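R.M. (postdoc): so does anyone remember the format we settled on? I'll just put the C-alpha cells first.
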C-alpha cells in the first residue's frame, strides 16, 4: 500500500456536541467540509485529545469517523486516534476504525506509561500488534519529555522502522531533545514523515519538519499552511511574521493553566469563525472562566481570522 502523504497541514479537529451533549454530526460535516476544502490540508486526525476521543463510546467514535469521512467527500484522509490502554483492545479499536473508514491511525502510548514508564520493547510490540491485527497504517506519537511515556531515541528509531509506520507526530516539548534527535531521525529514517505537534512552539519546530499535526490547524488553517511553506523554504522572516500575527490566538488558546483547556478554547475560536454555534464540551472538561469567549474572539479578529465561509466543499475566509 502506498503511504499517505501528510506533508503539509494535518488539523486535529474538535468533536462538536449538541447543547445536550450528544455528538453533533451536522456540525462535524460543516467543520470537516471547511477544513477539507483547503489544498494545503493533507488529512484530518479525529478522536485525539482535541477531539475528546476518549470521552466517547466505541459506537460514538465510529460514528464520528464516518461523519468526518463523509464531510470531506474523500478529498483528504481521516486518521483515527487509537487510545485504549491494552494492546489487544487497542488493536480492536483500530479494526473498528478501519471499518468506519479511517485511512490511518495515530497510536497513543498506553495510559499507564505516563506515570510508571514502559518496559523496554513494549512500545515496539504495541505498534507491531496493532498493525498486524488491523492493517491500519500508523503514526508514531512522541509524547512530551515531562512524561514517562516519552520514547527515547532508540525506541523512536525502532518503531519508525517497523512495517506499517509511515509518519511521526512529535510533541517532545524539550527543545534540547528536538534539536539533537530530529536530525538523527531524519538521517536514519529518511522516508518517515515528521510532523510537529507543538501548537505553542510552532516557530521553533517549523524548519525541521514535513508538516504539522495540530489542533491549532482546525481554527487557523490559512496562516498555518503559509507557515509550513515558509518553514520548508527556510524563510524565517515570513514564519516569524506569521508567528507574531498569531501570538494573541496562541496565548488565548494554549497559554492557559492546563493544556486541556485548549480544547475548550478551540471550540470558542470555531464559534468566533462561525463554524460552531456553541462551545459545549464533555466532562471532565469544564467551561472556561466567564469572559474567556470574548478574549478568544477578540484574539481571532486581531489576528485576521474572520468568519469562515463554506460553499459546496470549498473553503475560504471571509474578508
Amino acid at each position: 500500500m502506498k503511504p499517505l502523504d501528510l506533508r503539509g497541514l494535518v488539523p486535529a479537529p474538535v468533536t462538536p456536541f449538541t447543547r445536550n451533549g450528544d455528538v453533533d454530526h451536522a456540525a462535524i460535516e460543516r467543520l470537516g467540509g471547511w477544513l477539507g476544502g483547503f489544498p494545503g490540508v493533507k488529512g484530518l486526525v479525529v478522536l485525539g485529545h482535541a477531539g475528546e476521543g476518549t470521552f466517547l463510546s466505541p459506537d460514538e467514535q465510529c460514528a464520528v469517523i464516518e461523519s468526518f469521512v463523509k464531510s470531506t467527500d474523500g478529498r483528504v484522509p481521516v486518521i483515527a486516534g487509537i487510545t485504549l490502554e491494552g494492546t489487544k483492545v487497542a488493536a480492536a479499536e483500530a479494526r473498528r476504525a478501519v471499518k468506519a473508514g479511517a485511512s490511518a491511525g495515530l497510536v497513543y502510548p498506553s495510559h499507564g506509561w505516563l506515570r510508571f514508564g514502559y518496559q523496554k520493547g513494549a512500545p515496539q510490540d504495541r505498534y507491531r500488534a496493532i498493525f498486524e491485527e488491523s492493517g491500519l497504517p500508523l503514526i508514531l506519537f512522541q509524547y512530551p519529555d515531562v512524561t514517562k511515556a516519552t520514547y527515547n531515541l532508540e525506541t523512536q528509531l525502532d518503531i519508525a522502522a517497523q512495517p506499517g509506520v509511515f509518519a511521526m507526530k512529535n510533541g517532545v516539548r524539550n527543545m534540547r531533545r528536538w534539536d539533537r534527535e530530529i536530525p538523527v531521525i531524519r538521517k536514519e529514517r529518511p522516508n518517515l514523515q515528521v510532523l510537529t505537534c507543538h501548537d505553542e512552539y510552532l516557530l521553533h519546530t517549523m524548519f525541521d519538519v514535513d508538516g504539522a499535526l495540530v489542533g491549532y490547524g482546525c481554527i487557523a488553517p490559512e496562516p498555518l499552511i503559509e507557515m509550513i511553506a515558509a518553514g520548508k523554504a527556510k524563510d524565517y522572516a515570513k514564519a516569524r511574521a506569521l508567528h507574531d500575527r498569531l501570538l494573541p490566538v496562541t496565548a488565548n488558546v494554549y497559554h492557559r493553566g492546563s493544556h486541556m483547556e485548549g480544547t475548550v478554547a478551540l471550540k470558542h475560536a470555531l464559534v468566533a469563525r462561525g463554524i460552531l454555534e456553541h462551545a459545549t464540551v464533555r466532562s471532565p472538561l469544564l467551561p472556561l472562566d466567564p469572559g474567556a469567549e470574548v478574549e478568544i474572539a477578540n484574539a481571532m479578529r486581531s489576528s485576521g481570522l474572520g468568519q469562515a465561509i463554506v460553499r459546496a466543499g470549498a473553503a475560504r475566509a471571509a474578508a
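R.M.: ...and that's the designed sequence above, right after the C-alpha cells. Also worth knowing: DSSP finds twelve helices and ten strands in the chain. The CA atoms of residues 211 and 228 lie 6 Å apart.
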